Amino acid sequence: MFILIFVSSVAYSAIIIYSFNLIPYKWLCDYDADISNCPAQKLLSFPLHFFLIFLFALINLLLIFSQPHSIFDIFTSVMMTGILGHICLSDILYLIIPDQHILLIFILGFLNVNPENAGYKLTGIFAGALPLLLLLALGLLLKDREYIGFGDIKLMGALGFLTGSASILNVYIISSFLSGIFFLILAFLTVIRKIRTTPAFMPLAPFISLAFTACTQSL
């Protein structure tokens, strides 16, 4: 079974990398950006980017098939692996989360809407988006600075709709823990290496994606 999952992860990772290179460049730019003035599109290198995507896909598939799931749950999980793989790559390379991918997550959420869970899913949108929206507002009011991007807000709202309010709160906790560890390591390396400049923004989508995997795929 593991060999089959391993081979499937290799193939799926190659598909994710290849399909990412086919994304229209305008998806990876801000709405108000002049595409002609944007940096050149960065085509992914298979050796350079494949390993991280492969690990992400392998972890997801192992968790998906570690216990029985419905066909719909398997379909949703496999689709989310590819969507989140794209989102992680675009956030790392461009600090952009394409709205087209956010829309796909909402569509997956709509496929599972019924009268019993509709309210739960709607509150999930607010539970996912509202905390980051408040953080954005506080940053603008107090420091005139955006501490969070709209892409991250929309991503958390979409994941909240897909998973519901309770699960998205767990995603918040785990992603905050993972990103906190990463930033502490980055700060330590900055001090050790005496680096004077640090990036103004850091991609949060990889931490959110890992937290989503930990909270949902293992259920």
UniProtKB/TrEMBL annotation:
<keyword id="KW-1133">Transmembrane helix</keyword>
<dbReference type="GO" id="GO:0004190">
    <property type="term" value="F:aspartic-type endopeptidase activity"/>
</dbReference>
<feature type="domain" description="Prepilin type IV endopeptidase peptidase">
    <location>
        <begin position="80"/>
        <end position="184"/>
    </location>
</feature>
<protein>
    <recommendedName>
        <fullName>Prepilin type IV endopeptidase peptidase domain-containing protein</fullName>
    </recommendedName>
</protein>
<dbReference type="GO" id="GO:0005886">
    <property type="term" value="C:plasma membrane"/>
</dbReference>
<dbReference type="InterPro" id="IPR050882">
    <property type="entry name" value="Prepilin_peptidase/N-MTase"/>
</dbReference>
<keyword id="KW-0812">Transmembrane</keyword>
<feature type="transmembrane region" description="Helical">
    <location>
        <begin position="172"/>
        <end position="192"/>
    </location>
</feature>
<feature type="transmembrane region" description="Helical">
    <location>
        <begin position="118"/>
        <end position="140"/>
    </location>
</feature>
<feature type="transmembrane region" description="Helical">
    <location>
        <begin position="77"/>
        <end position="98"/>
    </location>
</feature>
<dbReference type="GO" id="GO:0006465">
    <property type="term" value="P:signal peptide processing"/>
</dbReference>
<comment type="similarity">
    <text>Belongs to the peptidase A24 family.</text>
</comment>
<feature type="transmembrane region" description="Helical">
    <location>
        <begin position="46"/>
        <end position="65"/>
    </location>
</feature>
<dbReference type="InterPro" id="IPR000045">
    <property type="entry name" value="Prepilin_IV_endopep_pep"/>
</dbReference>
<keyword id="KW-0472">Membrane</keyword>
<dbReference type="Pfam" id="PF01478">
    <property type="entry name" value="Peptidase_A24"/>
</dbReference>
